Amino acid sequence: MKVLIVGSGGREHAIAWKVSQSSKVEKIYCAPGNAGIAEYAQCLPIGAMEFEKLVAFAEEEKIGLTIIGMDDPLVGGIVDVFEKKGLRVFGPRENAAILEGSKAFSKDLMKKYNIPTAAYENFDDAQEAYEYLEKAEFPIVLKADGLALGKGVLICNTIEEAKEGVKTIMLDKQFGAAGNRLVIEEFMVGREVSVLSFVDGKTIKTMTSAQDHKRAKDGDEGLNTGGMGTFSPSPFYTDEVDEFCKKYIYQATVDAMKSEGREFKGIIFFGLMLTKNGPKVLEYNARFGDPEAQVVLPRMKNDIIEVMEACIDGTLDQLELEFENNAAVCVVLASDGYPLAYDKGLEIKGLENFKEKEGYYVFHAGTKFDNEKIVTNGGRVLGVVAKGEDLKAARTNAYEATKWIDFANKYMRSDIGKAIDEV
Q1: What CA–CA distance (Å, rounded) separates 356 from 242?
Q2: Average pLDDT over the chain, rounded to whole?
Q3: How many CA atoms within 13 Å lie on the side-chain side of 74?
């Protein structure tokens, strides 16, 4: 079949790489794609939010499966648009993608169905939020309700910081309409773990665990970003934790969405906090994590097209997910200044060093072609990934591989996976 992937980041590059290995696929297209994705797919000059153009292309080219990588088109209802035309598409419908599209909705869902999460309140009015903060315990977490590129979360240590945060989100609209509503949440202490899962509306199959590093600077300092690196599996995600989550979080979420008339088919990303009182949900996403996909998919043994089709057809219970018994680490190479101001158009050298090197990958996040050269075109530029027999070996390999690539203003954290030293 022909496959169309919608998106342009490191996540979509990892998906395209994995799709290219499927025996069911003859040609891959990506809209709009990037310079790395172009190795596996024909990139199209169509934006991820140009639904009618995407549908027209899929109809004209007789695309057998469209895979939606990004959150914006999912929350915007792209799956519904494709389905109305009788096209096969992987991802949740608009009424299910709200699981990521509204943090207030997802918190209310968890409260209603007794899914473990942090205590919280939702606010539509800034003045009411200010009054609530007068009685709150600190630190405390402020979350813009809608999509904010993974950056709409503020951890505030004092009431002054929190009030400034309310102003930033609700009044100054730093995150646009995403800040029309605000979630104020208890600050949870513990290890963060990410667990991606495939869902077919009733059955859920979880992938191997991972852990992201959100902050821009070493030691988890600096501003929140889309993710500066990740490792898989998490040594903190034990069999005991897995058993608890399967019983009280994973299947409970799928069942809750079905009960609400919002049947979920696609990917649910569970952001978990392993607290002293047990695992709790930090957040849901309705698609692959980025950069979690870059360490999870290289370890996955299954044909991804078979799994995605089972999700669409409601036959996921007939499959078992299999993962390699090893580890992977991703170090993000960013443009210095990210997530604020940074330069673009800087030539990237050394990408050829990854050719034919087994267990080493470079996934493009923000790149493009400039004549014959590949140049930077975003804050997060590349994800350098390496496997190893264990996490320490994978981490050593990944940092060694970051030396193979060079561009002006190259920046990375030096402590991705450092937590594994404590195990």
Answers
A1: 36
A2: 96
A3: 31
CATH architecture of 119-186: 2-Layer Sandwich (3.30)
Note whether 382 and 354 are within 8 A (CB).
no
Which two tokens mark 244? Answer: 């608890």
Domain 328-422, CATH 3.90.600.10 — does that match?
A: yes
| 2-90 CATH pick, 3.90.230.10, 3.40.50.20, 3.30.70.270, 3.40.190.170 | 3.40.50.20
Per the document, the length of the chain is: 423
CATH 3.90.70.10 fits 191-318, yes or no: no
Pair of tokens at residue 221: 């300092």
Q: Where are the beta strands (DSSP E) in 124-188?
A: 140-144, 153-156, 182-186
Distance CA 144, CA 107 (A): 13
Biggest CA pair distance of the chain: 60
258: left (phi over 0), alpha (psi -120 to 50) or beta: alpha
Domain limits, CATH 3.30.470.20, in the chain: 191-318
What pLDDT band is residue 151 in, cutting at 50, 70 and 90? confident
Task: Round to whole Å and give the CA distance between 187 and 351.
Answer: 41
User: Using one digit for the tens of pLDDT, what is the confidence trace for 107-140?
Assistant: 999 999 999 999 999 999 999 999 999 999 999 9
